[in-house]
Design brief:
mainly alpha; 9 helices; rod-shaped
Length: 209
């Protein structure tokens, strides 16, 4: 493996760096974007139960806020539960934008890696071909050993760049779709809490546990 990296030239270093960073981002985002962590299935039902039992204190709201990203959104609505639906909705939307930004953390970096990795590979190809033509100018085409270094560098960097870019692009698309799915789920749960607090929805959340 080391010989392969060495044959690819100095451009293998940024490509390998991109690979390490992309792997770290994918692992971290897969862990952080679990449904059980972002959108606990029974959170809204538990909040409604606490509210009906008149146990919804500021301390309890702080616990809800720190428990999950959905909890942050729900807590924003609970803080403004004595105000109108519009005020609750606006507070939830404001916090929701912050939560979505956090869910999308590092995805731009992953997308950038997916874009620049093949370009780094292409740059390695160009540099390798320049070396090939330089070798032809000096030694002619009669000695294939002289040409092998430039050709191998061109092919190895291209392959390495694509090997990083393809999975990075796939995971970027998957994780972006994952964020969209979680955002829709959080919007649904937040809408439930607004409707029940404002008396616009039947009291059926207790049965959801």
């Amino acid at each position: 493996m080391f010989e392969l990296v060495k044959a690819g030239g100095w451009l293998m270093l940024p490509i390998i760096t991109c690979s390490i960073v992309a792997t770290a981002i994918v692992i971290e985002r897969l862990w952080m974007l679990r449904s059980s962590r972002v959108v606990p299935s029974d959170l809204v039902a538990q909040v409604w139960k606490i509210y009906r039992q008149r146990q919804l204190t500021n301390a309890q709201i702080n616990i809800i806020r720190t428990g999950s990203p959905l909890g942050r959104i729900v807590a924003a609505g609970l803080v403004n539960r004595d105000y109108s639906r519009d005020v609750m909705h606006e507070a939830i939307e404001e916090v929701g934008r912050q939560v979505v930004h956090e869910l999308e953390r590092y995805l731009n970096t992953l997308g950038t890696i997916a874009s620049i990795s093949p370009l780094l590979g292409l740059l390695g190809t160009v540099i390798g071909m320049i070396k090939v033509f330089s070798a032809i100018t000096i030694a002619g085409v009669g000695n294939p050993t002289v040409l092998a270094g430039g050709i191998s560098e061109a092919l190895i960097t291209t392959a390495a760049g694509l090997s990083v870019a393809i999975p990075s692009l796939m995971f970027h698309r998957y994780l972006s779709g994952r964020v969209t799915f979680l955002v829709v789920k959080m919007e649904e749960e937040a809408l439930k809490i607004i409707e029940v607090m404002q008396g616009e929805r039947a009291d059926d959340l207790g049965d959801a546990q």
